[in-house]
């Protein structure tokens, strides 16, 4: 008995962007900016798409245009990309200075970036120290979770 | 001419805790709990120490006892440890099912954990989806930042 069979597979889109600045430190920081900027922009895109589908289902107007969504994507992408760029540069610098690659680089890098974000957000005094501790803890936890196995 | 020289070095404390449950999956999740629980407890300890030093400098009373600080450390450690345990278990499960170790495991694991935290925090509907997207993005970014180099 002849049978018809359908076989399909869903594959993720693959984009490779290669930027060579001729310096390993600069290459890493640019790489960090592109990678994390893309993740942040993708997060905004997913959220915006979900909201639009929700509005379509309810038959209501989204309240903001596609242009607003694209602007938000670029803004978030640039913001988180810059933070990642700084973190990668700092972690790489510490690795070179200390000559070791371990969680302490992540802790110090995270603390400096946490304090920096806090200062840029116009916080002062105690809040900056708290954010530095938080940043160090988050970076160390991320390092442990991803590099222990 | 004789010269006296002082040489000192500050080394980080080193604790090795080995727990063998006889199952690689269980070992990893317990390991995740201990590691991230320790990081979370250390964060609270650093914050509390900073606040105490601040109060001592100003000559004011901290407002809460050492017992309160220890309780907060245990609570935060257990909370973040449990989240890390679930994430590690989920990521490892996906790696075994998919047969691959890449950022997609982190994305899916982060999304599930994000949604779970949201539901436990008594959020509903749209907020849960938003938190799932946020969780997936954070886990993917952490994977990229720590495993790309």
From TrEMBL, chains A, B:
It is a multi-pass membrane protein. GO terms for biological process: protein import into chloroplast stroma. InterPro entries: Tim23-like (IPR045238). GO terms for molecular function: amino acid transmembrane transporter activity. It is found in: Membrane. Keywords: Membrane, Transmembrane, Transmembrane helix. It comes from the Eukaryota. Signal peptide: none annotated. One of its GO terms (cellular component) is chloroplast outer membrane. The keyword Repeat does not apply. This is Outer envelope pore protein 16, chloroplastic. It comes from Colocasia esculenta (Wild taro).
């Amino acid at each position: 008995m002849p049978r018809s069979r359908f076989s399909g597979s869903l594959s993720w889109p693959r984009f490779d962007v290669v930027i060579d600045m001729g310096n390993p430190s600069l290459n890493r920081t640019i790489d960090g900016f592109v990678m994390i900027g893309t993740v942040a922009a993708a997060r905004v895109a997913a959220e915006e798409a979900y909201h639009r589908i929700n509005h379509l289902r309810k038959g209501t107007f989204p309240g903001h245009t596609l242009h607003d969504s694209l602007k938000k994507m670029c803004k978030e992408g640039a913001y988180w990309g810059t933070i990642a760029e700084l973190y990668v540069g700092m972690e790489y610098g510490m690795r070179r200075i200390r000559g070791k690659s371990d969680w302490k680089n992540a802790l110090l890098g995270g603390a400096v970036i946490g304090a920096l974000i806090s200062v840029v957000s116009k916080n002062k005094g105690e809040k900056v120290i708290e954010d530095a501790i938080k940043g160090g803890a988050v970076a160390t936890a991320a390092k442990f979770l991803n590099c222990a196995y």
